[in-house]
Amino acid sequence: MKNYRLALYLGLAMASPMAIAQKKDTVKVNKDKTDKTETSSSKKTKKIEDLIKKGTYKKGLFNTIQVKTDIYFEIPDSLMERQFLVVNKLSQVPMQVNEAGLNKGMNYENKVISFHRDPVAKKVWVKTVVPKVSSPKNDAITKSVKDNFSESVIEVFDIEAQNSDSTAVAIKVNKVFDGNQKSFNDVLANVGLGGSVKSSLSYIEGVKTFPKNLVVKSQLSTSVNEGGVDLPVTLGVTTNLVLLSKIPMKPRVADSRVGFFSEKHWSFNDNQQKMDEKFFITKWNLEPKDEDKEKYLRGELVEPKKPIVYYIDPATPKQWREKIIAGVHDWQAAFEQAGFKNAVIAKMPDEKDEDFDIDDVRYSVITYAASPKSNAMGPSVVDPRSGEIIEADIIWWHNVMTSLHDWMRIQTGPIDPKARGNKFSDEHMGEAIRFVSSHEVGHTFGLKHNMGASFAFPVESLRSKEFTDKMGGTAPSIMDYARYNYVAQPEDGVTAITPKIGLYDKYAIDWGYRWYPDEFVEKKALRNLIEKHEDDPLYFYGEQQSYLETIDPRSQSEDLGDDAMKASEYGMKNLKVVVNNLLKWTYEDGKEYTDAGKLYMGAIGQWDLYTGHVMANVGGIYLNNTVFGNKKKAYEAVPAEIQTRAVDYLVKNAINLPEWLFFNPITEKTYPVKDSPMGPFEQTPYTMARGMQYANIYSLFMDDRLLRLLENELKHQMSGSKEEIYTVEKLFDQVRTAIFSKKGSLTMLEKMTQKNYVDALIVSVNKLFEKTAVKGLKVDDHLNIPTICNFHEDDHSLRNINYSSMKRVSEVTTYKRAELQKVLDLLNRTRYRGDDASRAHYTDLIIRIQEALNK
Which of 501, 524, 542 is the last residue of a domain? Predict the structure, then answer.
């Protein structure tokens, strides 16, 4: 996935170059020698040849001259006004920053700049632009486009010298690389540290120049305040200056039915009646060699003119290198479906290549980061004019293996003995590393998460050895968060339990990368390819959604199969096996129970995931990718039967807490243990169960969920349909009946459930009218459940649906208050039944509800 932001920098207000040239220069008088004055503009410009004699000269994109600590760029006139992409990366970080999740290899700031020579003022101006607007060269509107989407000045340099024929000038660039100016590199703001660089403690390490790019390495220092103490922080940063092609790559326009990252583009022309907004997918410029184009069009596999090459960081432990390389090469089959062989290459860098540098944008590198962070991600550097991927950087955090270990142990331990110990074999861990490598590499091809892929597989098929062997994974796309097969039961004999590159992935690469000779042929072929597979669930694309704001239950993270209730029931059976074997699987003679406590916490987190998967069906809406002609409905409510089953599951497994999970003999040895910055943190089962139950009840009756149910009810009434629908009243009736069915004496857990239900309703009603500040409602949703590449902020949905407006005047409050009244009536009928503790409980709830209803 890409980690790319193009910042629009506005220059400070300043006089024009001509006005500056016309100002009277300050006269400096040397009284000891002469009264002769000389203006700065009349000084004789130095010769570049003289500078070269004093320092070190290197030839490349810009020839560079280093005189002691001064760095000069020699810029030829031929490169003036050409566009360059500035790419800034971290190349070194101290512990304080590492611990905060920032590591070597991360690209934190990109922008497009150009250099402009001003012979009158004897300066070079640097301007930036957002190059996402275009118009035909000869159209009248083009003049307006230039004026309304103009460049902004971000920097200026004095011309220090020029060559003998005045076709190139030299500028001293120290100030933009040593921290004095932020115009080229605002590292502290972009990594979130803030403050300013201490220039006296910062310096330029070196410069390398190549035919199409230039690399400057710097050490920039600041300090951060931690607990009232200023801590020194020095960041190693690498700035790449990349020459963009004069003619951008021919872009491919995005389609919401195939999941690619994209760059927004506005186009204008004289024949329009409105501006045309398009989205260009991000992709490598893959095309056949000129001599192979006819073969390619005949359907023969050909090698691309320029393959996609990934280098493995030499810092990668040797036992994982081949697995990471294999994860890259697994994509060969997908590119072969697009007509290219040997399109993707992964290898170790040549040890003899002295110019190899991980931070050089000529190399796409899978960087290995020593860090406590458990993650991996696959961002790309993109030409914003066309969506062309110039370079990709996969960041591989060493501690990602802790996440893989937890997943496999909790999700597959019951069916795979290899996944039970405190440490796996290198071969078993290596296969997991291979899967993550493939997933992250997929992002660097431009592919977004496809969270809807796993919905294509019927749940029961995941228990079939024949089916799973044939499909080779847990979903039709490795870009889903489909993880491991937690559905298969010990007796099923299923062994293909790891996500693999699937049918959707091959189809998406075919759609994004197949080469076409002209735009007309391309447009028709791409449409036909989508329409050919549009009704096949194996090719369905589902946008990633927020865990807390899931609308379409088909597109969820970490789920499996087409029926969340059935899949979760199987998952719970396996989870019982994990819990029953917690102490056995984590046993190490003489060692504390910390690992057992962490595994226990992971099991509780997995239970919570299943709860969330099921809950998304309640008030859920299927969001279909519609276009004119495909006859699909854009919005379809989840069928009433499915919603009823979902609430039944929640009552059985979430509202009524599973005692085997929270209250068992394990707690005699350890409580659930969660890692924190202050060390392992133990949580008592009762406190944890109460908080998680409350969060689930509150979430089940959240306003947006009820509004979706109400909206569907309104649509149903307006259409006159006789189809059964699930309503807000049905939801309250189902849950209330389960919670308050027992009369008389209650257990402590039953009382806790009733209190949580009543309090969740009271708090949510008061929140609408701002009578209470709702704090502490949010439970740590993922507990100790690991996540991978959750950095994809740009993995945005094209569907932004508002269900929240004006909730105070909606029917939500009416239903919640009516529910409180119904509960009050029930309590008044049972308040004198049961033991003393139960009667006190009933009285307490009555008082709470009466106060909430102002009775």
Answer: 542
Residue 628 lies in a domain: no
Q: Are residues 525 and 407 in the same domain?
A: yes
**Calpha distance 258→157 (Å, rounded):** 46
Distances (CA, A) of 585 to 213, 409, 418, 423, 588: 53, 9, 11, 10, 9
Contact predicate 202/221, CB 8 Å: yes
Whether residue 237 is found in the same domain as residue 289: no
Residues 6+ apart with CB under 8 A from 194: 188
CATH number of the domain at 330, please. 3.40.390
Quick: pLDDT tens for 392-406: 989 999 999 999 999
pLDDT of residue 787: 59
Q: Same domain, yes or no, for 323 and 195?
A: no
Q: Which residue has the higher pLDDT, 347 or 230?
A: 347
* 56 within 8 A of 66, measured Cβ to Cβ: yes
Q: How many helices (H) and strands (E) does the chain have?
A: 25, 25
**DSSP run (H or E) holding 203:** strand 203-209
What pLDDT does 351 receive? 85
> In whole angstroms, what is the distance from residue 138 CA to residue 638 CA?
53
- Domain of 116, in residue numbers: 17-27+37-244
CA dist., res. 309 & res. 679, Å (int): 41
**Contact yes or no for 693/657 (Cβ under 8 A):** yes
Q: Which residues on neighbouring strands pair with residue 279, listed in sequence order?
A: 264
| Dist CA 244 CA 84 (whole Å) | 5
- Of the three residues 499, 518, 542, the one that is the final residue of a domain is 542
Contacts of 793 (CB under 8 A, 6+ apart): none
317 plus 195 within the same structural domain: no
Burial 758-775 (b: 16+ CB within 10 A, else e): bbbbbbbbeeeeeeeeee
Rounded to an integer, what distance in angstroms lies between the CA atom of residue 599 and that of residue 685?
A: 14
In a domain, residue 789? The reply is no
CA nearest to 401, candidates 367, 446, 432, 438: 432
Phi then psi dihedrals of residue 65, to 5 deg: -130, 125
The reply to whether 359 and 230 lie within a common domain is: no
Residue 294 lies in a domain: yes
Render the burial of 615-650: b for 16+ CB within 10 Å, e for the rest: bbbbbbbbbbbeeeeeeeeebebbbeebbbbbbebb
Q: Is residue 610 part of a domain?
A: no
Dump the DSSP string for 527-549.
Answer: HHHHHHHTT-GGG-------GGG
Question: In terms of domains, do 298 and 235 share one?
Answer: no
Q: What is the DSSP string of 547-610?
A: GGG---TTS-TT--SS-HHHHHHHHHHHHHHHHHTHHHHT--TT--SHHHHHHHHHHHHHHHHH
> Where residue 96 falls among pLDDT bands split at 50, 70, 90?
confident
| Distance (Å, whole) CA 41 – CA 379 | 47
Nearest to 428 by CA among 489, 499, 488, 498: 498
- Enumerate the β-bridge partners of residue 66: 56, 71
Cα–Cα dist 578/585, whole Å = 9
83 with 216, same domain: the answer is: yes
Structure confidence by residue, pLDDT tens digits, 528-557: 999 999 999 999 999 999 877 899 999 999
Give how many domains the chain has, as a whole number. Answer: 2
Q: Which of 384, 381, 343 is nearest to 506 (CA)?
A: 343
Rounded Cα gap, residues 233 and 231, in angstroms: 6
Position 94 scores a pLDDT of: 94
- How many Cβ atoms are within 10 Å of 339's Cβ, its own excluded? 22
The answer to whether residues 324 and 188 belong to one domain is no
Q: Say if residues 235 and 187 touch (Cβ distance below 8 Å).
A: yes
